[in-house]
Amino acid sequence: MRNYEIMLLVSGDLPEVEIEKALADFKSELESVKGEITFEDLWGRRELAYPIENQEEGFYVVYKFNIDPVVLPEFETVLRLKKEILRYLITIPPKGSTDKAFAESIEEERVRREAKKVEKARADQEKKKKEKEKFELKAHRKEKKMIRKIEESIQEEKKAQSPQADNEKVDAKFDEKLSKIIAEDIDL
Amino acid sequence: MAKLINKKCQFCVEKRDVIDYKNLSLLYPYINYFAKIKKRYYSGVCLRHQKMLARSIKRARFMGLLPFTR
Q: Is residue A20 part of a domain?
């Protein structure tokens, strides 16, 4: 016994009652070869991507079933002869596949993906913020450095200027004294 | 149409071992306007996942879920 997954494409031209009948027929056919259905997922009517046997619409069903691999080809021929089944696809379900309605699992995945996107966007924003802060900090430090440098240069200039100023003062005093002495000399 | 350098395989990033042919929203980004399978040169998918992708797209086409051409 082995687990298989089958997707049936039932003719969309048939009314609902006949579709149900076709599915019941499929089940009874499966039972006749000692197969058992473990999972059922009715997708319902869907528009076909391209017309199959001049039909624009189809009814999709997904089953999972256990069957002996030896009788599977026999079962397939039975399926092939059925007129109401347009197409079928038997696959081996991959490891770790869950028995969830597919619409549900797709919805779950979509939600998960969106959540991831939102998370990523948030992370990106935080990164940008951090970078901005870093940049601002750097700019702030640079400004401080510049201010310090300017101050230092001003102080150096002052220092450089101050002895000169002193000399000038001394010169001025000398000049005064000299002029006084000269004046006294003239008086004498 | 140059290959985007440093583009990683999206399936490898998600660590996906299965690409289901029923998951159409997953397949749509990898077919072009004419519903042909995009070359991995353009989509950046790794070889392992490209093979899985191609198989599932072909299955979906057979079942009338995806078009062959447009």
A: yes
| Superfamily covering domain B21-70 | Ribosomal protein S18 (4.10.640.10)
Give chain B's mean pLDDT: 86
Q: With an 8 Å Cβ cutoff, is B13 touching chain A?
A: no
How many angstroms away from the CA of A49 is the closest CA of chain B? 5
**Terminal-residue alpha carbon distance, chain B:** 21
CB pair distance less than 8 Å for A52 and B18 = no
Q: What is the pLDDT of residues A55-85, one digit of tens each?
A: 888 999 988 888 888 988 888 898 889 888 8
- Please work out, in degrees rounded to the nearest 5, the angle formed at the alpha carbon of residue B54 by the alpha carbons of B48 and B59: 130
* Total tally of structural domains belonging to chain A: 1
Question: What is the domain extent for residue A22?
Answer: 2-99
Which tens digit of pLDDT belongs to each residue from B5-35? 567 888 888 888 888 888 888 888 899 999 8
**Domain extents in chain B:** 21-70
Contacts of B56 (CB under 8 A, 6+ apart): B19, B20, B21, B23, B27
Question: Is B67 close to A50, i.e. CB distance below 8 A?
Answer: yes
CATH number of the domain within which A89 lies: 3.30.70.60
Minimal C-alpha gap between A65 and chain B (Å): 17
CB contact under 8 A, A7 and B63: yes
